[in-house]
């Protein structure tokens, strides 16, 4: 039986050789089918790569959005001073001071905003005091009675000294002097140690200037 099958195949092959046109046609069809199969496999692999790339992109995006340093995280700010409703407010980390003031019912008539930057971003755990005009009047009155520099000892009064006078202190530059002035606008220095409440002034700088200042 196997011999018969082999004989039939041989006969078919010999017929194909004799009929060249038929042979060319069969080979062309086979080539087309093979090419279609190759293209289909290539397209499937390309689609798999595209899907994996999209999944990787989505994964990266989610990590960036939900990470611990997310820009819009919830923070709490303590607003006090010359506002209608002082208190602690829950906001997001991209909130500016004027928005918190609006949440507090706005400023009172006595509010003095000359030393307050309402466009600044608030920080988590920050206590912000809006000064009143009466506070500024009190400081002005004391300024006329208390010298900036003690004439006897040459000490600088950190409550009323100018930026130029503050920068004469060891370790106090322009930026630090501005921070001192901004801080005292709403927080009067009651003793020399209070100057360490100013951002950037630690025990190291304080030890350098403590014998040169008064309040």
Question: How is this structure best described in words?
Answer:
49% of the residues lie in helices and 10% in strands. The protein is mainly α and 215 residues long. The chain has seven helices and five strands; from the N terminus they run ααββαβαβαααβ. It starts with a helix and ends with a strand. It has a three-stranded mixed β-sheet, covered by helices on one side. It has a two-stranded parallel ribbon with strand order 4-5. The longest helix has 47 residues.
Number of helices: 7
Class from secondary-structure proportions:
mainly alpha
Bin the helical content: 40-55%
Using DSSP, what is the number of strands? Answer: 5
Average pLDDT over all residues: 77
| Radius of gyration, taken over Cα atoms and rounded to an integer in Å | 41 Å
Low-confidence segments = 56-70, 139-152
Euclidean distance between termini CA atoms: 119 Å
Report strand %: 5-15%
Q: Order of strands across the widest beta sheet?
A: 2-1-3
Question: What kind of assembly state do the chains in view correspond to?
Answer: single chain
What's the overall geometry?
rod-shaped
| SSE topology string | HHEEHEHEHHHE
The major pleated sheet works out as: 3 strands, mixed
Q: What's the arrangement of secondary structure elements?
A:
Layout: H1 2-18, H2 20-66, E1 74-81, E2 87-92, H3 97-103, E3 127-130, H4 133-145, E4 156-157, H5 163-166, H6 174-184, H7 203-209, E5 213-214
Short structural description:
The protein has helices at 2-18, 20-66, 97-103, 133-145, 163-166, 174-184, 203-209, and strands at 74-81, 87-92, 127-130, 156-157, 213-214.
